[in-house]
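Hi there,

I know you've been waiting on this one. I reran it after we fixed the sequence typo, so this is the corrected version. Both the input and the resulting structure follow.
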Amino acid sequence: MRVAEEYGLVISYDPKIFAEWNGSGCHTNFSTTTMRAGTGGMKYIDDMMAKFAAKHALHISLYGAGNDKRLTGEHETSSMSQFSYGTGNRAASFRIPTSVMAADGKGYIEDRRPASNIDPYIVSSIIFDTGILPNSLGGPMATHYLAWAKWMETATIEKP
């Protein structure tokens, strides 16, 4: 940021600055022990995707302010209103690399929904909560974060 200031530039973490350009996301790659070992097959990933589909709206609400401008279903993004996943599909909510499909579920997956301005602790926590935990514990965290995000909309904060 200091270099940008020196040249009179401003750095933006906004997920979509220009309407007809690709936005800026913080795609989040992750794997579990089962995925790295490949012992659960694609069924393990398909079952996990069903969990993420059921909590799609919650995840979207935690994945960055202004993400509605980016997740339009255009410019290599999924639609904000509908969960999707697919092998090698850069326009899906979750992309499963072709190498993972070829190895019957061995590897990692990519959540393409998070925006560039996310809180990485919130995103990693809710991914863990949805994808790994047998019973969700993320409710209080989500409630607290959403209250903070609402407060931020009206907070007086110095802007460059």
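Quick highlight: The helical segments are 2-6, 33-37, 41-54, 56-62, 67-70, 98-102, 120-131, 139-154.

Best,
R. S.
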